[in-house]
Structures are given as structure tokens and as C-alpha cells.
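Memo to structure team: turn this sequence into C-alpha cells by end of day. - J.P.
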Amino acid sequence: FAIAIDRRVLRVMRRVFFIISCSLAQQAGLLTAGDVDDNLNFGHFVGYANRTSPSVEAYEPGFSAPDLSDRVMVSVQDATGAHFPCASITASSDQLTKTFPAGTNGMLYLFPTLDGFGPGMLTFTAVPPGGCSGECVAATGSTGSAGISLVIEGVDGELPSALDVVFVVDATGSMDDEIAYLATELTSVMDRVQEAIPGVDIRVGLTVYRNPGMTLAYGLSKSISERADDLRQQGVGGSLEAMIEALDAALEMDWRGGNTARVMFVVTDEPPERGTYARTVQAAQTARSLGITMMGLAASGASETAEYLLRVFAAITGGRHLFLTDDSGVGNPHKEPAVQCYQVTRLDSLLLRVLKSEVLGERVEPPEEEVQREVGRQQGGVCIVDITSTTRMAPSEASSNPGVGLAVGVLLLSLSAGLLSQ
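Reply from structure team:
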């Protein structure tokens, strides 16, 4: 009798877990996340990089951490004072001349040591993304300091009419707890982006990596559901992180030029395969030369080295570092990032704000009711007080957490259905 009861309970439990996993996998808005813009908190970032880079270099013999401390900020505006999206900026020193697209916010971050310009004065010329003609007057200027503002006369900047987004996703074994959720979030987010910024032509691409030689690439497509299905169908496996293969494949896609918002999300919990760190930093530099903004998305258990490299990618290209949190109760435990301040919201809402910010060229803040938890204090993404304590959700607020509510509801319904059917 005891054995029969145990088997019956076991059957019920298996059914419960199956129903819960299927229901959660189809439900968007469960994952929670925070983010940091290290270029808005550059002093904190330089300190973090100086503390962290020795251990990264020790783990990767031969890797020399990039020196980003000599950053030069170049801001391009039109005559009205508005930012000039995707302006083409040519930078010159006595040793080198390079041309880069500005971000959709009119900003470009240069790093003279990393970029090979060397010390001394830099000279800049900025023109609209399609070139300067008619009444347009190119902006010029020089600086030997940390920043310069350039003004293009005779023509106004225009917001991008197109958005290209590529997701670079780690599908090694440690990511098995989050791939299905991410696929669901992708469809939800891109649909909401289309609603929030109508008239913008959106394409989505995907690269998935495991061990070397196993990388899969799905080109930029207007079919968002198709790319979400491509991600959803991925199995996980392998332990070597062929990130560089996926980055190279992503960079080789047919990104649109000109006045286009271009974003690459790198989703992982581990650093790239040893021996490739320097190549991934070079990939970030290539992305910047193509006007692609890189955003890291650190998944559960992200290592210190993974966080460091993802934040370097974002700093070079003018992006943000995103990270999943434990607030949702979904997936394996998530590592707290080494940042001064951040706000926790649903991941789909964060991704929506990030992509909307990229199209509009200005930061979009979360509504107060969307913030589930806050570490430190910030204003417009800038940390204003160094506080390490956190404000966590009170037990009485658990019912307002969609992840908690869904999980509990599914559990109770499943138990009832399972027991009644026996």
C-alpha cells in the first residue's frame, strides 16, 4: 500500500513539474533584470576594471586588459542643440585616421591607446550619415582632453527609421535553465518595440554558439517569430565557449548602414574560450566601427571574467551591461554584479526601454511602479550615492510579483488536477 501511494505521489509530482515548466516557458515577463551604463559612471567603471583585470589576465595568459582610462567623448549636435543620430565622425592624429558612425544619441567613445591614435591632439570632422551636401556645413574641431562637442550646421538630425538587432546566445550546458525563457521574452519584447515606435522597420538576427565549430547563424529577418522559434528549438550542450565564432558571424551579417539603430545583445554566463579574449575585444572594436552598440546580458551564475568582458564590450561601443537577477525566482542563482547602483524590473520591460532608447537616442527610464528593487540611488542612469544596501520586496508585495503569482497559481491548479484525475 505504501509503495502504491509513493508511486501515485511520484506520478502527480512529475505531472506538476511538467505543467509548470511548460506554462512558464510560454509566459513572457517572468525574468527580472537590472542594468548599468558604465559610460555614465565612468570613474566607477575604471576603478572596477583596475581591480578586476589582474585576475582576468592571470586566468588568460598572454591577454593584456585594454586601457580604457583615456576615453575621449565626442558629441555631435545640429544647430538646434539636438543630438545628431548616426553622424559620421572622422578622427585623426599624427599617426592615424579613422572614421566611425556615432550612436543614435550622437555620441562616440574613443580610446586613443586602444585605438592606436597615441598621445596628443585629435582632430575631428563630423557630417550627417549620408554625407554633407547643399546647405550642410561639416563640423570640425580638435581636442587633447576628455571630450569635444561638434555642431553640424545647415541640416537637422533625424531619428533612425530602421532597427537591426542581433542576439548572440551561449547555448552551452550551463544555459539550459534560461534558453526557453529568453525565446519567449524575445517575441514579447520585439512586438512591444514595434508598438512603441511604429514606423521603424525592425529586423532580428541570431547566432548560437557551443563548442568550436558548432556555431549556428540565422541572418537578419523581419520575421521576429521565426527567429524566436530558431532560439526556442536550440538544445544546449558542450562546455567550450566559442563566443568569438558567434561574434564574427554576427558582425558579418547584412547590417544596414546610414541612419539605422544597430544593437547586438551577447547573452552568456561564462567568458569565451581561453585564448580568444583579445579577439573578442577586437570584435567589440569592429562593432563600434560599424556603428553597432553591444549590450551584455549576464545569465545565471555569470563569472567575474564574463562580467568584466561584457562590460568592456559595452563601454567600447557605448552600450549597457544587463544582468538577470534572482527576484523572479526563475533559473539558477544569479550573481550580484559589481556595480554601484541599479534598478530591478522585468527583463522584457528593460529590453523594451533599451531598444526604445537606441531608436530615440535618449535614455528611457522605467515608471516607478515597474521598479521591483533598487540598489543605491541613481538619476538618469548616473549613480548619485554610493550605497551598497538593497531594498527588497516585502512578503506582502509577493502577490504583485507576476513570477510568484504564476508559479503559485500553476502549482495549486496542477496539484488539484493531478490528484482529482487519479
